Amino acid sequence: MDTKSLFKERRSVNFFDKSREINDKILQEIVNLAVLAPSAFNLQPWRIIVVRTDESKKRLFDFANKQEKVVEAPITLILVGNKEGYADTNPVWAEMLQSVGNNHEMVDGAKQAAGFLYGSSEERKLKFAESNAGLLAMSIMIAAKEFGVATHPMSGIDFEGIHKGFNLQESETVVMTICMGYYDKSRQLYPRRPRRLFKDIATVV
Question: Which residues, 6+ apart, have CB-to-CB distance to 103 below 8 Å?
Fold first, then answer.
């Protein structure tokens, strides 16, 4: 599907066909395409919790204001950002060192810059985690559409409840959830509402 069609045809689907599963191969292909999304210093400070079992769906359902799509969709992803993804423990630094021919000075400089830019305050840590994981989230939704899979992003959720209920680390933050499945064509979506365009949202300075 061409890029224009991907954007124009992607919808946030409320109704999922409960009889159709997403197989592991398709899910992995979607995610493996989506991780081409950009991230700061290529640090990829994110991970994904795939909510698939009935028990996990019920747990998430209670944290998602009991929205039916959480139990109707075959999968819901919990997008998790790592507020300390700039730290030495991130394996991407080792990959970067190899990529630049073991230039330790370059990598050490990048580490220092990342530590200052993203780790010098709690606000910066949170911005770092959420902005990067947000890029991954949109990338997942576009990639899913390429494979004929419908999605619905959700931020009307109990972030703290999910954090505790799914045993996230202190350094992690819940960014959003994304329901994934196949559109139940027996049910009708609302027409797409108008978007504010360049002339409405852009200021040239």
Answer: 97
Q: How far apart are CA 83 and CA 86, in angstroms?
A: 8
Q: What does pTM read for this prediction?
A: 0.95
Element of type H or E holding 56: helix 54-63
Six-digit token string for 189: 């979506």
DSSP letters of 77-104?
EEEEEETTTTSTT-THHHHHHHHTTS-H
**Per-residue model confidence as pLDDT tens digits over 34-66:** 999 999 999 999 999 999 999 999 999 999 999
Report the domain count for the chain.
Answer: 1
The domain that contains 152 carries what CATH number?
A: 3.40.109.10
SS3 content of the chain, % helix, strand, coil (to 5): 45, 15, 40
DSSP 41: G
Helix (H) or strand (E) holding 72: helix 69-72
Angle in degrees, 0-180, between the axes of helices 122-146 and 24-34, rounded to the nearest 10: 130
Structure tokens at 116: 């200052």
How does pLDDT run across 119-144, given as a tens digit for each residue? 999 999 999 999 999 999 999 999 99
Residues of the domain holding 173: 3-201
Q: Where are the alpha helices (DSSP H) in 84-167?
A: 92-99, 104-119, 122-146, 159-165
